[in-house]
Specification:
mainly alpha
Length: 87
């Protein structure tokens, strides 16, 4: 079986932590990445759930916030008392 090179850029500190983890379980980083690739190919999916952690940072919400900021800067906002949650 011929081998191919897979190159990826990762944060320096993440790479060091990954190398440390791999070493602690008796693997090289290359072996761990090969295991990951094999699982993805075998199962035809990522071996973990990919989801947006915080919807605050979604493109939709960021656009809403920018619009609100511009409205405030144009003097279109109004002040009101903070509403308390009764729970």
């Amino acid at each position: 079986m011929a081998l191919a090179t897979l190159t990826s850029r990762v944060d320096e500190m993440d790479k060091a932590a990954f190398d440390d983890f791999c070493s602690s379980v008796g693997l090289t980083a290359s072996a761990a990445i090969n295991m990951y690739v094999k699982v993805v190919v075998r199962d035809r999916k990522l071996p973990f759930e990919v989801r947006q952690v915080d919807p605050f940072y979604s493109a939709t919400n960021q656009a809403h916030l920018l619009k609100a900021i511009h409205q405030l800067e144009e003097g279109k906002g109004s002040a009101h008392a903070l509403l308390e949650d009764d729970e």
